UniProtKB/TrEMBL annotation:
<protein>
    <recommendedName>
        <fullName>Probable transcriptional regulatory protein BRW62_00985</fullName>
    </recommendedName>
</protein>
<dbReference type="GO" id="GO:0003677">
    <property type="term" value="F:DNA binding"/>
</dbReference>
<feature type="domain" description="TACO1/YebC-like second and third">
    <location>
        <begin position="83"/>
        <end position="238"/>
    </location>
</feature>
<feature type="domain" description="TACO1/YebC-like N-terminal">
    <location>
        <begin position="5"/>
        <end position="75"/>
    </location>
</feature>
<dbReference type="GO" id="GO:0006355">
    <property type="term" value="P:regulation of DNA-templated transcription"/>
</dbReference>
<dbReference type="InterPro" id="IPR048300">
    <property type="entry name" value="TACO1_YebC-like_2nd/3rd_dom"/>
</dbReference>
<dbReference type="Pfam" id="PF01709">
    <property type="entry name" value="Transcrip_reg"/>
</dbReference>
<keyword id="KW-0804">Transcription</keyword>
<keyword id="KW-0963">Cytoplasm</keyword>
<keyword id="KW-0805">Transcription regulation</keyword>
<dbReference type="GO" id="GO:0005829">
    <property type="term" value="C:cytosol"/>
</dbReference>
<dbReference type="InterPro" id="IPR026564">
    <property type="entry name" value="Transcrip_reg_TACO1-like_dom3"/>
</dbReference>
<keyword id="KW-0238">DNA-binding</keyword>
<comment type="similarity">
    <text>Belongs to the TACO1 family.</text>
</comment>
<dbReference type="Pfam" id="PF20772">
    <property type="entry name" value="TACO1_YebC_N"/>
</dbReference>
<dbReference type="InterPro" id="IPR002876">
    <property type="entry name" value="Transcrip_reg_TACO1-like"/>
</dbReference>
<dbReference type="InterPro" id="IPR017856">
    <property type="entry name" value="Integrase-like_N"/>
</dbReference>
Length: 250
């Protein structure tokens, strides 16, 4: 049931890079737009929107920016360039699969930017469906790592979920996306501090990256993709050991 998620480690290390590159505001604003588009503009009745707003406020995004993002999502803000959700797929070095979600007002520009990023790191942007079958969309609730794992299991059973990973000082609980709010509320009820809730594409199979050059190319591609303005999320099936991560100079 419990395990060590190497991809979660990569994700956490890249989060630091995101902050350094000043992309946090744009990424969180796009998350609000998407949540409002799918579930409406009322946070009280839209858990995804409520979560996105909480993250935005924690990052210091002004209220007027949050309101503008909600208006964009619900279509109440006039715009000459409507935003479109697009999913892209491709392969990086070593046959590693990448699944990318974008929110863009220009598909051609976004595709060209992605193609350039893939080509530079020895990969290629593929056709729709080339790697999508390797991933499933899940909800992930992150809480502080429990001191008593048996008690934590009782809380998980009450939340009707059984899959989790303990990564460093946090536990990541996996559930269906539709159950995110219920699982989050149950864990809160049992006294666990919920740090984050999110939708995440998780790979059904993984590719073990064992050499330094391939790891470097994969991580550089990940960096390049996440710094593009239109990109909302990036998932990969790469597994890179902690020891190799320490060796790689990105």
């Amino acid at each position: 049931m419990a395990g060590h998620s190497k991809w979660a480690n990569i994700k956490r290390q890249k989060a630091r890079v995101d902050a350094q590159k000043g992309k946090v505001f744009a990424r969180l604003s796009r998350a609000i737009i998407i949540a409002a588009r799918h579930g409406g503009g009322d946070p009280a009745g839209n858990f995804q929107l409520r979560s996105a707003i909480e993250k935005a406020k924690a990052a210091g995004i002004p209220n007027e920016n949050i309101e503008r993002a909600i208006a964009k999502g619900t279509g109440t803000l006039d715009s000459d360039a409507p935003l479109e959700e697009v999913r892209y797929e491709g392969y990086g070095a070593g046959g590693v699969a990448f699944l990318i979600e974008a929110l863009t007002d220009n598909r051609n520009r976004t595709a060209a930017d992605l193609r350039a990023a893939f080509n530079k790191q020895g990969g290629n942007l593929g056709e729709t469906g080339c790697v999508g079958w390797m991933f499933d969309l899940w909800g992930v609730v992150t809480v502080a790592a429990p001191h008593d794992e048996e008690a934590f299991l009782e809380a998980l059973l009450a939340a009707e979920v059984e899959t989790y990973d303990i990564v460093a000082d946090v536990a990541e609980v996996r559930c269906p996306v539709a159950a995110l709010e219920a699982v989050s509320n149950t864990l809160n009820h049992y006294g666990y501090h919920v740090l984050e809730t999110e939708r995440r594409w998780l790979s059904l199979n993984t590719v073990e990256v064992s050499d330094e050059e391939t790891a470097r190319r994969v991580l550089r591609l990940l960096d390049a993709l996440e710094t593009l303005d239109d990109i909302q999320s990036v998932a990969t099936n790469a597994v890179i050991s902690d020891a190799l991560m320490e060796m790689v100079d990105v």
